């Protein structure tokens, strides 16, 4: 996948309201593979909705969204499965970890499907993020910040043309933010992937990015 296009798109919940200044809604926007984008938004302006639309979880919007020129509403279930396995790596804001499984088991669930990373690479990420001692701990016993780091590792365990991150560092301090940013940028560079990250304040510290507002 080389590009994502939004054409006059608007969440259904905003229909009929006075237009809100935005670089995304009710605009023509092209997101290109290999580029970095930061979507800055206040709460309630649709950043998580945007991520859900791009991942095929929701369709309650007007306008058009396209992957390489194809309207995403026309994708079959099988095609969406391919998008999620091979083209878009997604970190939702709520993380969606399994609390009864260990941190490593949560990551392995993804990696066994993709075979994308070695166990050594995964354990090195746990080390880099300061949680090597949490590998075998149930996620339910981890802090929110620790859970967010586990979810980020899981997200990166797949091939992708775009890495889609909804508030990826909202629970992290500056040090871990920088480490996560370096990890994400390195993985994106290795795959030639684009990065799309959202933020309400504490944003991913990418070296270069195009800022869009909701």
Characterize this entry briefly:
The chain has helices at 47-54, 77-87, 103-114, 119-128, 144-155, 174-191, and strands at 3-11, 28-32, 36-40, 61-67, 70-71, 88-91, 162-166, 194-199, 210-213.
What would you note in describing this structure?
This protein has 214 residues and is of the alpha/beta class. It has a domain at 3-96 and 161-213: 3-Layer(aba) Sandwich (Rossmann fold). Helix content is 33%, strand content 22%. The protein has helices at residues 47-54, 77-87, 103-114, 119-128, 144-155, 174-191; strands at residues 3-11, 28-32, 36-40, 61-67, 70-71, 88-91, 162-166, 194-199, 210-213. Strands 6-7-8-3-9 form a five-stranded parallel beta sheet, with helices on both faces. The protein has a four-stranded antiparallel beta sheet with strand order 2-1-4-5, covered by helices on one side. Strand 7, helix 6 (174-191) and strand 8 form a beta-alpha-beta unit. Helix 3 runs parallel beside helix 5 (144-155). The radius of gyration is 17 Å and the shape is globular. The two termini are 24 Å apart. The model has no long low-confidence stretch (mean pLDDT 93).
What is the name of the CATH topology of one domain? Rossmann fold
- The class by helix and strand makeup works out as alpha/beta
CATH architecture group name of one domain:
3-Layer(aba) Sandwich
Mean pLDDT: 93
Fourth-level CATH superfamily of one domain: P-loop containing nucleotide triphosphate hydrolases
How are helices and strands ordered from N to C?
EEEHEEHEHHHEHEE
Kindly report the spatial arrangement of strands forming the biggest sheet.
6-7-8-3-9
In total, how many beta strands?
A: 9
Strand residue content: 15-25%
Shape assignment: globular
Radius of gyration: 17 Å
Which parts are unreliable, with pLDDT below 50 for 5 consecutive residues or more?
A: none
Tally of DSSP helical segments: 6
The major β-sheet equals: 5 strands, parallel
The percentage helix is 25-40%
Terminal residue distance: 24 Å
What is the highest CATH level, the class of one domain? Alpha Beta
């Amino acid at each position: 996948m080389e590009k994502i296009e939004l054409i006059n798109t608007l969440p259904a919940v905003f229909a009929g309201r006075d237009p809100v200044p935005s670089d995304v809604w009710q605009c023509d926007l092209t997101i290109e593979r290999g580029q970095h984008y930061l979507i800055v938004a206040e709460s309630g302006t649709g950043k998580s909705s945007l991520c859900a639309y791009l991942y095929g979880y929701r369709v309650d919007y007007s306008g058009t969204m396209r992957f390489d020129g194809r309207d995403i509403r026309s994708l079959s279930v099988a095609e969406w499965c391919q998008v999620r396995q091979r083209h878009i790596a997604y970190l939702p804001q709520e993380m969606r970890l399994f609390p009864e499984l260990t941190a490593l088991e949560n990551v392995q669930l993804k990696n066994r499907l993709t075979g994308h990373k070695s166990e050594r690479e995964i354990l090195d990420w746990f080390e880099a993020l300061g949680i090597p001692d949490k590998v075998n701990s149930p996620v339910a016993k981890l802090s929110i910040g620790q859970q967010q780091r586990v979810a980020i590792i899981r997200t990166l365990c797949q091939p992708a043309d775009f890495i889609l991150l909804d508030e990826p560092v909202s629970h992290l301090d500056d040090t871990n933010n920088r480490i996560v940013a370096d990890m994400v940028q390195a993985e994106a560079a290795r795959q030639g992937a684009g990065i799309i990250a959202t933020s309400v304040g504490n944003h991913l510290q990418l070296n270069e990015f195009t800022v869009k507002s909701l």
